[in-house]
Amino acid sequence: xxxxxxxxxxxxxxxxxxxxxxxxxxxxxxxxxxxxxxxxxxxxxxxxxxxxxxxxxxxxxxxxxxxxxxxxxxxxxxxxxxxxxxxxxxxxxxxxxxxxxxxxxxxxxxxxxxxxxxxxxxxxxxxxxxxxxxxxxxxxxxxxxxxxxxxxxxxxxxxxxxxxxxxxxxxxxxxxxxxxxxxxxxxxxxxxxxxxxxxxxxxxxxxxxxxxxxxxxxxxxxxxxxxxxxxxxxxxxxxxxxxxxxxxxxxxxxxxxxxxxxxxxxxxxxxxxxxxxxxxxxxxxxxxxxxxxxxxxxxxxxxxxxxxxxxxxxxxxxxxxxxxxxxxxxxxxxxxxxxxxxxxxxxxxxxxxxxxxxxxxxxxxxxxxxxxxxxxxxxxxxxxxxxxxxxxxxxxxxxxxxxxxxxxxxxxxxxxxxxxxxxxxxxxxxxxxxxxxxxxxxxxxxxxxxxxxxxxxxxxxxxx
Length: 464
Prior knowledge:
Shape: globular
Mean pLDDT: 92
Number of helices: 16
Number of strands: 15
Structural class: alpha/beta
Low-confidence stretches: 1-32
């Protein structure tokens, strides 16, 4: 779904007060309990590069039925979706199309034969669409990003509490095989008490932010109306914002390791950014110094660093680095009193087990004698074959499977609206901190104190 950034709607007056929605709630257990369903009827909102992957997943599940999809890009993305549907259903099932402009998704939400929607659209639409879905009684699974402001995060939480409709946060890296093995290590006490964690989004996106308007990745230095796919909308965030624009890939997984919003919470952050040079250089190198886009002033610093403090005394370092030439890395480090895991080195060090001052390799999950083999998470042991060939090394299968299974079983989402609001909040808070030379920003408690009594539920066994 392609659209230029919107100005956020005015925050709803009846959701401003911190206590709004609590009296309407009854209990959080009631709020996050779905009616059990043998088959989930799905609407997909946004069938671009990301949404097509989700669409393909649901088209091949016997416990899911794709009822409708919405996307205004009739020239490029819609034909791809229609071809995928035809190949999977062979004309035996009719899938409704809502392609009459960017607001036509609202007509999809009016249908009474849809249980849930998956939202895979430009970031500025996520909250708008999720709120509309909740008000229509459709439980949304929402792709990750960073919010435009804190009010947007509260709007997600308040609407969920008021309507009783839960939200599923689609952070797929929480299900990455090595990350889940490390989660297993943490829970079994291998690293002792955790003290410091690192994560981030270090990914050379220059070929995503710019293309030639004819292919998804690279081939030119166009963006905005002349770009295609993410270059049409994502690059504008780099023009206008200096912040950690995409915090959840690093933050989501390590939050599970230290029980954020479930016995622990994030308290405050401070962020700084380097100068902005990478995107301008890419344009000059690939389009020449006289190209019109060489005159664009990009606000996003090449590297944004954010330090977070938690209630239970851990620190978290996040890094956002998408404008520089570099190999992909999420920069994970999990440090405890007995040792640590370093993602980039693919190594662990465990005191009194490892040779002093020497790293040990994590190994392969298929090798039972390696660390990752010994601590391979039960979910991966059970479903590795099912997830084979799925997007992002199988992670996408697990996150969408969890969404379906929770609805079918009527159980709470393991990554819920409070988690999503917390992830989203990092972007506007880091933006404010960078603008104020690294000033401390306090992170809202979106659970309104319930974090003290909520208990961890993410991936406790091999169910979902």
